[in-house]
Design goal:
This protein is α/β, with parallel strands linked by helices. It has 11 helices and 19 strands. The chain folds into 2 domains: 368 residues, Alkaline Phosphatase, subunit A (3-Layer(aba) Sandwich); 52 residues. The relative contact order is 0.21.
Length: 473
């Protein structure tokens, strides 16, 4: 290795001078990072104004985990029906799926489609209730994603990346807007089956952000908020004294650790839990709802009761100021119809259709849909080719997402897939574009809503994404 020789101190400084600039830049970046952290540490959940006037104040994401089939629900393909049982044309090339290389015969949909509402959006007979909301929806027909399997694709739809470790969409919303109800979490997640979503809690985690912004998981059943009730032998006064003591100890601990955001998040969680003990039981008390409302959400039917309950709770939470609510239907990839698409989707649509429509109609009736963005869809769609005799494989190349309220056009279809529904071919919308548009509706420029991490201004959309302005009302 060559070791430079210096004849004088002046030569050394002249040669090494470029390095001083790098050192200064590094110190400045560290200072900015600490400043960014300081803003968060003061009161991380304080309400904040968006960067510009927002059309949406809150989001409800109805997540159909497993990949609902767009060619059977919202994207009819007459050519697929016509060529049923024939091979995918060679001009489409080899289609890579999780099960290997595609190329099985085309599988026609057995569903009957109708043009619904004044707008004439297409819905199949699997969605008779959602079809009545056709004039409230923007239908994105050419969405695409990067992942082939559920773990990566669910993660990308939630965080922008197929790899774990980045903040979730709900966390970005809460980070940008803060919370308007300090007695409830700003970001809530509902799922059946103990929350067995593919990828688990990373789908509502904060990654490199302070843990304050993570989603709070609500369970199914009569007590959706876990570990909320105070033990009978502990009164409210004793509970308050206990929290005060913990706060004093944390203050002592923090003096030597001023930048420990995890500690601040833990303190905020203790205080929130204490306040929730008084206000949260009322928020999740469905006995206050009329029988007509419960019936509309399907609480009186076995097939719809569980998802309907979560949809109704979502409405009650956003009414009380919760910023972002995510409601999973089919946690554990239950929409994943590799075999028997008819049996699978008949069951899943029966579970999701009525409560989803009831939520939109209820929000609209209460004057909330105008500034509440409702999203309906999964992590990808399904192939027009068959898998086995009667199933469909994963399709991240072209699929549909529904959006209603919050400043999007009603009764509007955007984008187009090919004649079979395999690829998006016109006005394609990548997951990054989808996220950029959601943030725009919330009043944020996705390129300017950033969080400094390791000397870099990180953002939800990484270094890509554009707002789909064509769908804005």
């Amino acid at each position: 290795m060559h070791v430079p020789s210096y004849s004088s101190r002046r030569d050394f400084l002249r040669t090494a001078g470029g390095g001083f600039g790098a050192l200064a830049l590094s110190a400045l970046a560290a200072s900015e990072s600490r400043a960014s952290e300081a803003k968060v540490v003061g009161d991380p959940l304080a309400p904040k104004e968006p960067q510009f006037k927002a059309t949406a104040k809150r989001v409800i994401f109805l997540f159909m985990e497993g990949g609902p089939s767009h060619v059977d629900l919202t994207d009819p393909k007459p050519e697929l029906t016509k060529r049923n049982g024939t091979p995918l044309p060679a001009s489409f090339g080899k289609v890579i799926t999780p099960m290997g290389t595609g190329g099985n015969n085309l599988l026609a949909s057995k569903r009957k489609f109708a043009k619904c509402g004044k707008s004439g959006l297409d819905f199949s007979d699997w969605l008779p209730h959602l079809s009545t909301c056709a004039d409230d929806f923007t239908l994105l027909r050419a969405c695409w994603a990067d992942g082939l399997n559920h773990v990566g694709s669910v993660c990308q739809m939630n965080t922008g990346s197929i790899l774990a470790g980045r903040p979730s969409l709900g966390s970005w919303a809460l980070y940008g807007l803060g919370s308007v109800n300090r007695n409830l979490p700003g970001f809530v997640v509902f799922a059946e089956g103990g929350g067995q979503i593919f990828g688990g809690a990373r789908n509502w985690a904060t990654g490199y952000m302070p843990a304050t912004y993570q989603g709070t998981y609500f369970s199914s059943g009569p007590a959706p908020i876990l570990n909320l009730d105070t033990p009978a032998e502990v009164g409210s006064a004793r509970q308050r004294e206990k929290l005060n003591l913990i706060g004093e100890l944390n203050d002592l601990h923090r003096k030597d650790r001023p930048g420990d955001s995890q500690l601040d998040a833990r303190r905020a969680a203790y205080e929130l839990a204490y306040r929730m003990q008084a206000s949260a039981p009322e928020a999740v008390d469905l006995t206050q709802e009329t029988e007509k409302t419960k019936e509309a959400y399907g609480l009186n039917r076995k097939e719809t009761a569980e998802f309907g309950t979560r949809c109704l709770l979502a409405r009650r939470l956003v009414e009380r100021g919760v910023r972002f609510v995510q409601v999973y239907c089919g946690a554990g990839s239950q929409w994943d119809a590799h075999a028997d698409i008819e049996g699978n989707h008949t069951k899943m649509c029966l579970r999701a259709d009525k409560p989803s429509a009831a939520l939109i109609q209820d929000l609209k009736q209460r004057g909330l849909l105008e500034d509440t963005l409702v999203i309906w869809g999964g992590e990808f769609g399904r192939t027009p080719m068959s898998e086995g005799a009667s199933g469909r494989d994963h399709n991240p190349y072209g699929f549909s997402m529904l959006m209603a309220g919050g400043g999007v056009k009603g009764g509007f279809a955007f984008g187009r897939t090919d004649e079979f529904g395999l690829y998006g071919v016109e006005n394609r919308v990548h997951v990054h574009d989808f996220h950029a548009t959601i943030l725009h509706l919330l009043g944020f420029d996705h390129e300017k809503l950033t969080f400094r991490h390791n000397g870099k201004d990180e953002r939800l959309t990484d270094v890509k994404g554009k707002v789909v302005r064509e769908i804005l009302a």
